[in-house]
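agent> Task received from the user: take the single chain below, predict its 3D structure, and emit C-alpha cells. No templates, no multimer pairing.
agent> Plan: (1) validate residues, (2) run structure prediction, (3) serialize to C-alpha cells, (4) report one or two observations.
agent> Step 1 OK, no nonstandard residues flagged.
tool_call: predict_structure(input=
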Amino acid sequence: MPDHDPNRPSNEHPADGDAFRLDRATVRRGDLTLVDAVSCAAPRGRTVALLGPNGCGKTTLSRLLTGHAFAASGNVNVLGERIGRTDIRALRRRVSVVHPALDAGGTHQPGAVVDADLTATQAVCTGFFGSVGLYDRPTDSQTDAARNTLRQVGLDHRLDHRVAVLSSGEQRRVLLARALVTAPELLILDEPTTGLDVAGREALLATLEQLADRPDRPAVLMITHHVEELSPRTHRVWLMKHGRIVTDGPPELVITPEALTDAFGCPVHVKREHGRWWLEVLPEAWVP
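)
tool_result: status=success, residues=288
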C-alpha cells in the first residue's frame, strides 16, 4: 500500500499542468473538522477518483473546488486560480458539477439542478445561465449546442420531452449534457449514479467513458464509494477516511483488499476484470 504524505501534493505533474491543487486544505464546521489538511493535485485532461465511505468528507472537498466551501487553512488552486483571490463567478463558469437532484419520478426537489417541467433541450440550456429554470432566452446557437450535446449522450430521441417524464438514467444524462454544454475545463461527478438501476448506471458510465476519447476532454473528478464506477482510464485514486486522504496513487496500488477494508470498515475482496474493479464483501462481515 503506498504511503501518503499530507505535506506533499499527490501528483508528480508541474503546477501549471494541474486542473486543481490542494495544499494542506482544512475545512471546519464549529468544532468538527470535515476536511483535515488535505494535499492533492489532478492533472488537466485526466480522470481522477476520490473514493471513500459516506460522511468521510468527499463532497466537502468538491465544494472547496467550486468555492461553495472555504478552507480555514491551506490553499486551494483551481484551473490556475487561487480560491479567495479570484472572481469565483468567472471561475465557476469553467467548472461543471453533476450530482443527483431529481427523484426517479422526475419531481422537482428542493435544491434540484433544473426544473423538471422543462424539456430536455431547455434543461441543458440552463447550463449557459447557471439557473434552475429557463429565465433567459437562449440564442439559436445555444439551443443548437444543447441539442447536439444531448445527441452526444444518447438522448437524440428525447430532445423535446419534459425532464419529468424521462427515466432516472435519462434524467442523469440530461444533467451530464447540461454540464458538458459549456465545454468545462473541470468536470466534477459527485456520486452521479446514485439511485440508478444497473442499466441506467451502465449507460451513464458508458457515456462518461466516451469523454476520454475527446480531444477537448476536461479533467474529471469522480467522487464515489463504489469501485465499480471507476473508469479503466482512471489516472489516480485518492482513498479518503475521516476527512483525510489516507492512500493515494495509481489505481492498481490503491484499490486493494487491505486499503478498502480499512477505509470502509468491513472485510472486502476486490478484483479487476475487463479493465474495471469489482468489490465483494466477505462473509465474515455478516457475522455478529
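agent> Step 4: summary for the user.
The radius of gyration is 19 Å.
agent> Done.
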